[in-house]
Predict the structure.
Amino acid sequence: MTDAASPTTGGPRHVAVIMDGNGRWARARGRPRLFGHHAGAKRVREVVNACPDLGIKYLTIFAFSTENWKRTQTEVAGLMSLFRRYITKEARALRDEGVRVRFIGDRVRLDDKLIKLMDELEELTAGNDLVHLTIALNYGSRDEVARAIQRLAYEVAEGGLDPADVNEDTLTRFLDTHVLPDPDLVIRTSGEARISNFLLWQSAYAEYEFIDTLWPDFTRDVFAEVVAGYGKRDRRFGAVSG
Ligand code: FPP
Protein backbone atom coordinates (compact mmCIF):
# COMPACT_ATOMS: atom_id res chain seq x y z
CA MET A 1 0.00 0.00 0.00
CA THR A 2 1.05 3.59 -0.37
CA ASP A 3 2.38 5.87 2.29
CA ALA A 4 0.50 9.05 3.22
CA ALA A 5 0.68 11.47 6.10
CA SER A 6 -2.45 12.07 8.14
CA PRO A 7 -4.75 14.31 6.09
CA THR A 8 -6.12 16.06 9.19
CA THR A 9 -2.95 16.88 11.11
CA GLY A 10 -0.04 16.61 8.68
CA GLY A 11 1.31 14.16 11.24
CA PRO A 12 2.18 10.52 10.67
CA ARG A 13 -0.64 8.20 9.76
CA HIS A 14 1.32 5.05 10.59
CA VAL A 15 3.85 4.96 13.43
CA ALA A 16 6.00 1.89 14.11
CA VAL A 17 7.80 1.50 17.44
CA ILE A 18 10.78 -0.56 18.54
CA MET A 19 10.08 -0.76 22.28
CA ASP A 20 13.59 -1.04 23.69
CA GLY A 21 15.07 -0.56 27.15
CA ASN A 22 12.89 -2.69 29.43
CA GLY A 23 15.88 -4.65 30.72
CA ARG A 24 17.93 -1.54 31.55
CA TRP A 25 14.90 0.08 33.19
CA ALA A 26 14.54 -2.94 35.48
CA ARG A 27 18.29 -3.17 36.18
CA ALA A 28 18.36 0.49 37.26
CA ARG A 29 15.82 -0.50 39.91
CA GLY A 30 17.64 -3.65 40.96
CA ARG A 31 14.82 -5.81 39.60
CA PRO A 32 14.77 -8.76 37.15
CA ARG A 33 14.38 -8.11 33.42
CA LEU A 34 10.80 -9.38 33.39
CA PHE A 35 9.84 -6.61 35.79
CA GLY A 36 10.83 -4.20 33.01
CA HIS A 37 8.80 -6.10 30.42
CA HIS A 38 5.73 -5.91 32.65
CA ALA A 39 6.23 -2.16 33.06
CA GLY A 40 6.65 -1.93 29.28
CA ALA A 41 3.40 -3.78 28.68
CA LYS A 42 1.56 -1.20 30.79
CA ARG A 43 2.82 1.58 28.52
CA VAL A 44 1.34 -0.06 25.42
CA ARG A 45 -2.19 0.82 26.47
CA GLU A 46 -1.32 4.47 27.11
CA VAL A 47 0.37 4.79 23.73
CA VAL A 48 -2.51 3.12 21.87
CA ASN A 49 -5.01 5.40 23.61
CA ALA A 50 -3.02 8.49 22.60
CA CYS A 51 -3.21 7.65 18.89
CA PRO A 52 -6.60 9.18 17.95
CA ASP A 53 -5.69 12.60 19.42
CA LEU A 54 -2.38 12.53 17.55
CA GLY A 55 -4.07 11.68 14.25
CA ILE A 56 -2.41 8.25 14.16
CA LYS A 57 -4.53 5.56 12.56
CA TYR A 58 -1.96 2.74 12.46
CA LEU A 59 0.41 1.77 15.25
CA THR A 60 2.77 -1.17 14.85
CA ILE A 61 4.83 -2.37 17.82
CA PHE A 62 7.77 -4.77 17.96
CA ALA A 63 7.00 -7.14 20.83
CA PHE A 64 9.23 -10.14 20.06
CA SER A 65 11.74 -10.64 17.27
CA THR A 66 12.89 -13.79 15.49
CA GLU A 67 16.22 -13.16 17.26
CA ASN A 68 14.72 -12.84 20.76
CA TRP A 69 14.64 -16.67 21.12
CA LYS A 70 18.37 -16.36 21.91
CA ARG A 71 17.51 -14.89 25.33
CA THR A 72 17.46 -17.12 28.41
CA GLN A 73 14.70 -19.70 28.65
CA THR A 74 13.37 -17.86 31.72
CA GLU A 75 13.05 -14.56 29.87
CA VAL A 76 11.49 -16.14 26.75
CA ALA A 77 8.97 -18.11 28.82
CA GLY A 78 8.21 -15.01 30.89
CA LEU A 79 7.59 -12.92 27.77
CA MET A 80 5.31 -15.59 26.24
CA SER A 81 3.36 -15.75 29.48
CA LEU A 82 3.15 -11.94 29.51
CA PHE A 83 1.73 -11.92 25.96
CA ARG A 84 -0.90 -14.53 26.91
CA ARG A 85 -1.90 -12.58 30.01
CA TYR A 86 -1.89 -9.27 28.17
CA ILE A 87 -4.24 -10.53 25.45
CA THR A 88 -6.57 -12.18 27.96
CA LYS A 89 -6.70 -9.11 30.17
CA GLU A 90 -6.90 -6.38 27.52
CA ALA A 91 -9.13 -8.02 24.89
CA ARG A 92 -12.46 -6.50 25.93
CA ALA A 93 -11.05 -3.03 26.55
CA LEU A 94 -9.37 -3.02 23.14
CA ARG A 95 -12.62 -4.05 21.51
CA ASP A 96 -14.67 -1.46 23.41
CA GLU A 97 -12.17 1.31 22.64
CA GLY A 98 -12.38 0.79 18.87
CA VAL A 99 -8.94 -0.79 18.44
CA ARG A 100 -8.47 -3.36 15.69
CA VAL A 101 -5.65 -5.73 16.58
CA ARG A 102 -3.58 -7.71 14.10
CA PHE A 103 -0.46 -9.82 14.58
CA ILE A 104 2.44 -10.10 12.17
CA GLY A 105 5.32 -12.56 12.30
CA ASP A 106 5.73 -16.29 11.94
CA ARG A 107 3.42 -18.26 14.22
CA VAL A 108 5.17 -21.64 13.81
CA ARG A 109 7.30 -21.39 16.97
CA LEU A 110 4.53 -19.95 19.15
CA ASP A 111 2.57 -22.23 21.47
CA ASP A 112 -0.98 -23.28 20.58
CA LYS A 113 -2.59 -21.46 23.49
CA LEU A 114 -1.00 -18.15 22.48
CA ILE A 115 -1.93 -18.65 18.81
CA LYS A 116 -5.54 -19.29 19.82
CA LEU A 117 -5.63 -16.10 21.89
CA MET A 118 -4.13 -14.14 18.99
CA ASP A 119 -6.74 -15.51 16.57
CA GLU A 120 -9.55 -14.74 19.00
CA LEU A 121 -8.36 -11.16 19.57
CA GLU A 122 -8.09 -10.54 15.82
CA GLU A 123 -11.59 -11.86 15.37
CA LEU A 124 -13.04 -10.00 18.37
CA THR A 125 -11.71 -6.64 17.12
CA ALA A 126 -12.18 -7.21 13.38
CA GLY A 127 -15.06 -4.72 13.17
CA ASN A 128 -13.08 -1.82 14.70
CA ASP A 129 -11.51 1.03 12.77
CA LEU A 130 -10.48 3.78 15.20
CA VAL A 131 -6.89 2.62 15.65
CA HIS A 132 -5.23 -0.31 13.89
CA LEU A 133 -2.77 -1.86 16.33
CA THR A 134 -0.37 -4.38 14.82
CA ILE A 135 1.73 -6.45 17.19
CA ALA A 136 4.89 -7.98 15.72
CA LEU A 137 5.44 -11.30 17.49
CA ASN A 138 8.19 -13.68 16.39
CA TYR A 139 8.70 -11.13 13.64
CA GLY A 140 11.83 -10.49 11.59
CA SER A 141 11.81 -8.53 8.37
CA ARG A 142 14.15 -10.89 6.49
CA ASP A 143 12.10 -13.86 7.66
CA GLU A 144 8.91 -12.12 6.48
CA VAL A 145 10.39 -11.38 3.04
CA ALA A 146 11.67 -14.98 2.73
CA ARG A 147 8.22 -16.36 3.65
CA ALA A 148 6.58 -13.96 1.18
CA ILE A 149 8.90 -15.06 -1.61
CA GLN A 150 8.23 -18.70 -0.83
CA ARG A 151 4.46 -18.17 -1.10
CA LEU A 152 4.96 -16.16 -4.28
CA ALA A 153 7.13 -18.96 -5.74
CA TYR A 154 4.41 -21.54 -4.98
CA GLU A 155 1.87 -19.36 -6.74
CA VAL A 156 4.14 -19.09 -9.79
CA ALA A 157 4.72 -22.86 -9.74
CA GLU A 158 0.98 -23.51 -9.60
CA GLY A 159 0.43 -21.22 -12.58
CA GLY A 160 -1.44 -18.52 -10.65
CA LEU A 161 1.17 -15.86 -11.28
CA ASP A 162 3.29 -15.04 -14.33
CA PRO A 163 6.96 -14.33 -13.37
CA ALA A 164 6.79 -11.38 -15.78
CA ASP A 165 4.21 -9.80 -13.45
CA VAL A 166 6.40 -9.94 -10.36
CA ASN A 167 7.20 -6.40 -9.22
CA GLU A 168 7.28 -4.38 -5.98
CA ASP A 169 3.49 -4.36 -5.67
CA THR A 170 3.25 -8.12 -6.17
CA LEU A 171 5.80 -8.83 -3.44
CA THR A 172 4.09 -6.35 -1.11
CA ARG A 173 0.87 -8.35 -1.44
CA PHE A 174 2.59 -11.42 0.02
CA LEU A 175 4.02 -9.65 3.09
CA ASP A 176 2.46 -10.03 6.56
CA THR A 177 1.72 -6.29 6.42
CA HIS A 178 -0.15 -6.43 3.10
CA VAL A 179 -3.24 -4.65 4.48
CA LEU A 180 -1.28 -1.82 6.15
CA PRO A 181 0.07 1.42 4.71
CA ASP A 182 3.85 1.87 4.97
CA PRO A 183 5.06 3.46 8.23
CA ASP A 184 5.63 7.22 8.06
CA LEU A 185 7.62 7.31 11.29
CA VAL A 186 9.68 4.65 13.07
CA ILE A 187 10.57 5.35 16.70
CA ARG A 188 13.17 3.43 18.68
CA THR A 189 13.51 4.04 22.39
CA SER A 190 16.52 3.56 24.71
CA GLY A 191 19.24 5.37 22.76
CA GLU A 192 20.15 2.57 20.34
CA ALA A 193 20.27 3.67 16.69
CA ARG A 194 19.49 0.35 15.01
CA ILE A 195 16.59 -1.05 13.01
CA SER A 196 17.06 -4.65 14.22
CA ASN A 197 15.32 -6.34 11.29
CA PHE A 198 12.03 -4.42 11.75
CA LEU A 199 9.84 -3.54 8.73
CA LEU A 200 12.87 -3.09 6.44
CA TRP A 201 10.92 -3.22 3.17
CA GLN A 202 7.99 -1.17 4.48
CA SER A 203 10.13 1.60 6.02
CA ALA A 204 12.13 2.42 2.90
CA TYR A 205 10.89 6.04 3.02
CA ALA A 206 10.00 6.33 6.70
CA GLU A 207 11.41 9.00 8.97
CA TYR A 208 13.31 7.66 11.99
CA GLU A 209 13.47 8.95 15.55
CA PHE A 210 15.94 7.40 17.97
CA ILE A 211 15.22 8.70 21.45
CA ASP A 212 17.00 8.09 24.76
CA THR A 213 13.86 7.41 26.82
CA LEU A 214 13.59 3.78 27.94
CA TRP A 215 10.35 2.12 26.82
CA PRO A 216 8.73 1.89 30.31
CA ASP A 217 9.20 5.69 30.59
CA PHE A 218 7.64 6.38 27.18
CA THR A 219 4.61 8.38 28.28
CA ARG A 220 1.85 9.91 26.22
CA ASP A 221 3.66 13.28 26.48
CA VAL A 222 6.94 11.86 25.15
CA PHE A 223 5.00 10.25 22.30
CA ALA A 224 3.25 13.55 21.49
CA GLU A 225 6.60 15.37 21.46
CA VAL A 226 8.18 12.90 19.03
CA VAL A 227 5.14 13.05 16.76
CA ALA A 228 5.22 16.88 16.80
CA GLY A 229 8.85 16.72 15.60
CA TYR A 230 7.75 14.64 12.63
CA GLY A 231 5.45 17.47 11.47
CA LYS A 232 8.47 19.73 10.98
CA ARG A 233 10.22 17.36 8.61
CA ASP A 234 10.27 17.76 4.84
CA ARG A 235 9.52 14.37 3.26
CA ARG A 236 10.51 14.27 -0.39
CA PHE A 237 10.35 10.54 -1.30
CA GLY A 238 13.36 11.05 -3.58
CA ALA A 239 11.91 14.16 -5.26
CA VAL A 240 12.99 17.80 -4.88
CA SER A 241 11.52 20.03 -2.17
CA GLY A 242 8.61 22.30 -3.16
C1 FPP B 1 13.29 -4.82 24.37
O1 FPP B 1 13.85 -4.39 25.60
C2 FPP B 1 11.96 -5.29 24.58
C3 FPP B 1 11.48 -6.53 24.25
C4 FPP B 1 12.29 -7.58 23.60
C5 FPP B 1 10.12 -6.92 24.55
C6 FPP B 1 9.06 -5.89 24.24
C7 FPP B 1 7.91 -6.27 25.01
C8 FPP B 1 7.13 -5.47 25.72
C9 FPP B 1 7.20 -4.00 25.78
C10 FPP B 1 6.14 -6.13 26.54
C11 FPP B 1 4.77 -6.11 26.17
C12 FPP B 1 4.27 -6.06 24.83
C13 FPP B 1 3.00 -6.38 24.59
C14 FPP B 1 2.43 -6.30 23.26
C15 FPP B 1 2.14 -6.85 25.68
P1 FPP B 1 15.15 -5.14 26.11
O2 FPP B 1 14.73 -6.29 26.93
O3 FPP B 1 16.03 -5.50 24.96
O4 FPP B 1 15.81 -4.02 26.97
P2 FPP B 1 17.38 -3.80 27.19
O5 FPP B 1 17.96 -3.46 25.86
O6 FPP B 1 17.42 -2.64 28.14
O7 FPP B 1 17.93 -5.06 27.78
Notes: The first helix runs from residue 22 to 27.
